[in-house]
């Protein structure tokens, strides 16, 4: 059976189409588009009309792509920007009118939970160790603390790349002094949520880290298989941050491996990664290309038995 999941995030919309046979998923298409749905939302609490229009248009195009691919089951989910927007009802109504599909809004805790399960599907070896996973988004970051395959703590914090860009990085390039002050403030923000762990395996996912992996590998064309399971060290993260900070948005857009649509928020996202690594005393982070869209291709039934959520994913 061919299924599709469309994940509407604060910064981007993702489409994943997969052929599901007896619990195994073969990925047929996995794409995304930056629509910045949550842009400017931290000041008003409302989704902007221009952002709503471009996001709904993108989702409708993805629905049509899924149908053309033969998808018989299409799920649309929304995360941080949608669940906190004051005009979410209007957004839901307009989306349903255009696509004829109901939007499912995922709670922060459930988003963190599903992100952890996505990691388990790609890194089965982490079941034998303590692990911290984090998923950097445009409006929030989800953290899960795991111990031998079981979740011990999960949380979604109001720290995301778009929000931090609007708060700390309104100019580009940025001076070293302002960068240092912003980094210290971001690390304080994250630490206030109790993010701290010694000796655990750190695994990150989301557009920021996959982009940083693509930059490290100098990818002209993004290769999910090469990104999945790759690593980036703290030194490499710091080096990329310094490079982003020294450039204008236009100059960042020319960096090999960086989608120009992410150029304005990549610095803030990288600072979240750096702060998380510092708080967890991690010298490197493993990178996962998998996320909500992959796990939700299978039956999204939450159970106490995490083994039921593990699936094998292959790239066609």
Q: At CATH's second level, what is the architecture of the largest domain? A: 2-Layer Sandwich
Number of helices: 13
Low-confidence stretches: 301-316
- Amino-to-carboxy terminus distance: 15 Å
Enter the CATH topology name of the largest domain.
Nucleotidyltransferase, domain 5
Record the SSE blueprint:
Elements lengths: L1 E7 L3 E10 L2 E11 L6 H4 L4 H20 L4 E6 L1 H5 L3 H12 L3 E3 L2 H15 L7 E7 L4 E7 L2 E8 L3 H8 L7 H16 L9 E5 L1 H10 L7 H4 L3 E3 H12 L3 H4 L13 H14 L4 E5 L3 H4 L17 E3 L1
Parallel strand pairs: 1-4, 3-12, 4-5, 6-9, 9-11
Antiparallel strand pairs: 1-2, 2-3, 6-7, 7-8, 10-11
Helix pairs in contact: 2-4, 6-12, 7-12, 8-12, 10-12
How would you briefly describe this protein structure?
This protein has 316 residues and is an alpha/beta fold.
Labels describing this entry:
6-stranded mixed β-sheet; alpha/beta; Nucleotidyltransferase, domain 5; globular; 41% helix; 2 domains; 316 residues; disordered C terminus; single chain
